[in-house]
Amino acid sequence: DGGITQSPKYLFRKEGQNVTLSCEQNLNHDAMYWYRQDPGQGLRLIYYSQIVNDFQKGDIAEGYSVSREKKESFPLTVTSAQKNPTAFYLCAIKDRGPGYTFGSGTRLTVV
Amino acid sequence: SQKIEQNSEALNIQEGKTATLTCNYTNYSPAYLQWYRQDPGRGPVFLLLIRENEKEKRKERLKVTFDTTLKQSLFHITASQPADSATYLCALRNQAGTALIFGKGTTLSVSS
Q1: Cβ contacts of residue A4 below 8 Å, gap of 6+?
Q2: What is the mean pLDDT of chain B?
């Protein structure tokens, strides 16, 4: 996926648990983004970071947290406060070109 | 607030025909608009960007138009093939200019 890696591909969470989704990039880009995708809802922005040690809330940040301690890593934690976490989660970086490059996604299911 | 609408959830066409997908936006005047392709279970892949001063842009069998008066972009795939079957998303920068916001997508199915 062009230097951006998301893991795991599938993740199962029990009610009340926090889980962390990994997003790593080796392209030395500053800006990284987390989106959530539900059927029929398109992509919705959760958090983004334009530089190390700084991040901003997107449109649906409640119940999520992030960190950006290293340029190459932008992990997303889905907390127990997120009441409906089952979704497809996508991480993206801003290319030097015009578009975004996305990872292959993590599908999270609450069991 | 900004709103992006892709007014067809699904579009079914026959192989060889031209597929036309629509993206409308409100409450915003973007400097550019982007189109992405997404296959099931995968992340979106960037296809094309068109700027506000460009009326039309082409890439192989793809053509995008951008009408800032109508606040609309049209995405055309000519001589469509079954391999073109996917979901196509349009995207704009948010008003702060800090991130992309996406439409819900149109799922195109091309039958042979």
Answers
A1: A23, A24, A25, A27, A91, A92, A93, A101, A102, A103
A2: 93
Q: What single DSSP character describes residue B69?
A: T
Q: What letter does residue B83 receive in the DSSP assignment?
A: G
B30 in reach of chain A (CB within 8 A): no
Q: Does residue B39 register a pLDDT over 90?
A: yes
**pLDDT band per the 50, 70, 90 thresholds, residue A111:** confident
Cα separation of the two ends of chain B: 41
Contact A98 B42 (CB under 8 A): no
Pick from A35, A99, A103: which is nearest to B46 by CB? A99
Structure tokens at B63: 């053509």
| Amino acid identity, position B50 | I
User: Would you tell me which residues 42-61 of chain A have a C-beta closer than 8 angstroms to some C-beta of chain B?
Assistant: 42-45, 48, 50, 56, 58-59
- B36 chain-A contacts, CB cut-off 8 A: 99
Is residue B15 over pLDDT 90?
Answer: yes
Chains A, B: CB contacts within 8 A come to: 54
Query: Who contacts A26 (Cβ-Cβ below 8 Å, separation ≥6)?
Result: A3, A72
pLDDT at residue A70, as a whole number: 96
Q: How confident is the model at residue B30 (pLDDT cuts 50, 70, 90)?
A: confident
Cβ neighbours of B103 in A, within 8 Å: 42
Nearest CA in chain B to A47: B99
Segment B85-112 mean pLDDT: 93
Q: Alpha-carbon Rg of chain A, whole angstroms? A: 13
